[in-house]
């Protein structure tokens, strides 16, 4: 009896898996496609815009027409993106021109599509959904005979079924973080279901499959005990987590196949199903405008390329980035759909202000174009120079939007990444006028041997020195941040950026352990930047002794003099000086990354620009490490750090660097009082005192109260003020006060 019961449970369990669980993720019946054709993508608004573009000979139209004309004679074997890629352009060209030659060629390519998805390449990278567009857009064409229609229906039914059972793992198992595989294949199911609704009994199953991935995801459930990076996450959750405009493993990665799938989801939902994620799911509304903003934030001031944020792909310039124009048109269009017309205009204005590059998706570039939108120059829009992206934990900073700005990014990478594991270490890069002074390293899965390839990383016992977060429920995050803000009572226009990242319990020994061993009990990284000055302060508390290593990456071979590292930009015009103020007794080892990359991957496709140098900086052995580093940029030939003083007393540490003074607590605790002495104060010195309890503070210089109303907010726990003092050493005392006398001038002096 017990055996029979167990067999019944087993049968039910197998059925549970094989039935794909679509019953638990049914597509909303109120949003089933209606019978009007075309139902996919070609809304009246789109048709009007595309006709206008055609009749006015826009650049996008000219490229699109050239593509379609080439496809009339192109051999299918020459289509590196698969025969599917030719269907939608030709079908659209027929819709616009009514030229039967394009329609006939589209039918030819639809016939060429195999009903075995593996014959045409990875379902996460090939536009199988274009078969649905061809079917829908050419539905009433004379060549769409009943026999042809039945043939195409059977082909899409088989493709969806095979993708679901083999590629998507029936929505149950498989890698739950392979974003392009899940998003793009999910869009295929959606497009097939929309095209075939009313014509195929399996159309609802296709819609349910797409909805399962949108609402539930693919991979192991949290209750399974599987490794965290394999756990199921809904597509909508990835969108929500990427609200800053980034994708978790890197913006460059998102620009490729992931954006193809996400754009197809949005357009198909809206056009065929009357379901607009930006309306029905308002928490997703700002995603596309933030993509436009992130494109601007990540574009170097010289406007020649993007900074990559952890992707495996090479950091090419615009001349090689074939997907830039597709994505900016898509993101601009989607911004306009939700009423963000300004970001629509800024995105289209950006496209006209970057170097002419390589185009390989003329269909999407044209489809999302809109000649009725007036492009606006985003670089003259007065956009903020400092921006914090909550959730993704990116802090962008620049001191202007011109082509010679100083620019950079501080990244906490504050959540479990969507696609592959990435460490929460607090990466940063610095760029001066026309080149990088230091850069991060790609941290995509697979680079699992050799030295650490991220910037100023804490190194544990893993071979590549990167922290691993498997099993962690509390990923690192930026908990404090502050940027440029006007000061009451002054004309201060100083631009600066500050953030603090916490990464407690983030590191363990073995990615495959079910019970990971956390090696870090607490970790804080403070980052400060203003102009040519940068300060990084780390507090590290561990369960082990002597395993932390920091790495400063250089474009050219660096040199070491005492504790000062000097490195030049690749073009030789700029220098960066780095000094470790504490702890004393650090060891410095110079690493030739050309050789280490060669040792790791003989033929790995890494640009020469990434085969660089770095200094590994190791503090003395200890399980309590405070690491204070200062950096100052300047023109080539710079040989000393200006205005440098190491400030340390009464449980605090910091530095005077140039015209800045920045102080931190030596422990992971907020304090209500700070006092420090500056031996050689400069006229007009900026102060940022961190790790303060929130409240109101009084400020004294050499015992004389200057102001009794400096506010410290919970958001950043910092006090910012400016002093004018030139008559000898300056003792600064900042302490919490309860009485709040009238405000005095915040430009302080003697």
Offer a quick outline of the entry.
The chain has 17 helices and 26 strands.
Structure description:
This protein is an alpha+beta fold and 750 residues long. The chain has 17 helices and 26 strands. The protein has an eight-stranded antiparallel β-sheet with strand order 6-7-8-9-16-13-12-11, with no helix packed on it. The chain has a six-stranded mixed β-sheet with strand order 17-18-19-21-24-26, with no helix packed on it. Helix 7 packs antiparallel against helix 8 (179-196), helix 11 (251-273) packs across helix 14 and helix 13 runs parallel beside helix 15. The radius of gyration is 29 Å and the shape is elongated. Mean pLDDT is 81; it is low at 1-23, 246-250, 414-424, 443-474, 509-517 and 739-750.
């Amino acid at each position: 009896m017990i055996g029979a019961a167990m067999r019944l449970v087993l049968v039910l369990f197998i059925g549970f898996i094989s039935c794909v669980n679509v019953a638990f993720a049914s597509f909303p019946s109120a949003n089933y496609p209606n019978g009007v054709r075309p139902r996919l993508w070609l809304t009246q608004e789109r048709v009007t815009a595309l006709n206008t573009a055609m009749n006015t000979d826009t650049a996008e139209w000219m490229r699109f027409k050239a593509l379609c004309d080439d496809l009339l004679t192109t051999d299918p074997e020459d289509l590196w993106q698969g025969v599917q890629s030719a269907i939608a352009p030709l079908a659209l060209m027929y819709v616009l021109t009514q030229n039967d030659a394009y329609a006939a060629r589209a039918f030819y390519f639809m016939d060429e599509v195999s009903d075995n998805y593996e014959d045409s390449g990875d379902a996460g990278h090939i536009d199988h959904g274009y078969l649905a567009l061809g079917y829908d857009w050419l539905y009433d064409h004379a060549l769409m005979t009943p026999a042809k229609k039945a043939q195409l229906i059977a082909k899409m039914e088989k493709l969806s079924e095979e993708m679901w059972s083999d590629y998507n793992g029936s929505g149950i198992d498989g890698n739950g973080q392979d974003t392009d595989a899940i998003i793009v294949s999910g869009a295929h199911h959606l497009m097939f279901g929309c095209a075939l609704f009313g014509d195929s009994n399996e159309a609802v199953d296709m819609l349910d499959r797409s909805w399962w991935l949108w609402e539930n995801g693919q991979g192991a459930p949290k209750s399974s005990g599987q490794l965290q990076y394999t756990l199921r996450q809904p597509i909508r959750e990835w969108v929500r987590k990427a609200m800053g405009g980034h994708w978790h493993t890197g913006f460059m990665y998102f620009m490729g196949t992931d954006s193809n799938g996400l754009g197809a989801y949005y357009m198909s939902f809206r056009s065929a199903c009357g379901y607009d994620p930006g309306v029905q799911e308002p928490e997703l509304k700002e995603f596309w405008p933030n993509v436009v903003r992130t494109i601007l934030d990540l574009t170097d001031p010289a406007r020649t390329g993007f900074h990559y944020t952890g992707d495996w792909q090479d950091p090419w310039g615009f001349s090689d980035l074939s997907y830039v124009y597709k994505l900016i048109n898509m993101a601009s269009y989607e911004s306009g759909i939700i009423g963000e017309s300004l970001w629509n205009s800024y995105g289209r204005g950006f496209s006209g202000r970057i170097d002419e590059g390589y185009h390989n998706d003329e269909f999407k570039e044209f489809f999302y174009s809109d000649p009725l939108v007036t492009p606006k120059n985003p670089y003259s829009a007065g956009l903020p120079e400092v921006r914090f992206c909550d959730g993704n934990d990116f802090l962008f900073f620049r001191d202007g939007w011109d082509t010679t700005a100083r620019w950079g990014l501080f990244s906490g990478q504050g959540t479990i990444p969507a696609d592959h594991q990435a460490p929460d270490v607090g990466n940063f890069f610095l760029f001066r006028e026309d080149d990088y002074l230091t850069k991060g390293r790609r941290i995509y899965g697979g680079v699992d041997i050799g030295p650490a390839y991220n910037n100023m990383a804490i190194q544990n016992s893993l071979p590549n020195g990167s922290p691993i977060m498997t099993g962690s429920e509390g990923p690192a995050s930026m908990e404090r941040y502050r940027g440029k803000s006007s000061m009451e009572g002054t004309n201060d226009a100083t631009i600066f950026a500050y953030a603090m990242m916490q990464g407690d319990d983030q590191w363990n020994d073995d990615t495959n352990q079910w019970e990971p061993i956390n090696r870090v009990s607490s970790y804080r990284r403070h980052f400060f930047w203003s102009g040519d000055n940068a300060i990084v302060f780390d507090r590290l508390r561990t369960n082990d002794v002597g395993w932390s290593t920091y790495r400063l990456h250089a474009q050219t071979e660096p040199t070491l003099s005492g504790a000062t590292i000097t490195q030049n930009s690749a073009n030789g015009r700029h220098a960066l000086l780095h000094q470790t103020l504490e702890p004393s007794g650090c060891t410095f080892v110079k690493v030739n990354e050309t050789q280490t990359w060669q040792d790791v991957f003989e033929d790995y496709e890494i640009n020469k620009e990434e085969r660089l140098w770095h200094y590994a900086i190791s503090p003395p052995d200890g399980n309590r490490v405070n690491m204070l580093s200062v950096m100052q940029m300047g023109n080539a030939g710079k040989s000393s750090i200006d205005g440098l003083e190491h400030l340390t007393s009464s449980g605090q540490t910091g530095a005077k660097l140039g015209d800045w003074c920045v102080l931190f607590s030596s422990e992971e605790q907020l304090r209500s009082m700070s006092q420090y002495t500056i031996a050689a104060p400069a006229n007009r010195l900026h102060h940022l005192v961190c790790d303060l309890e929130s409240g109101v503070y009084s400020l004294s210089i050499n015992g004389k109260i200057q102001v009794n109303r400096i506010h410290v907010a919970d958001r950043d726990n910092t006090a910012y003020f400016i002093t004018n003092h030139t008559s000898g050493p300056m003792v600064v005392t900042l302490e919490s006060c309860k009485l709040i006398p009238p405000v005095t001038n915040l430009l302080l002096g003697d």
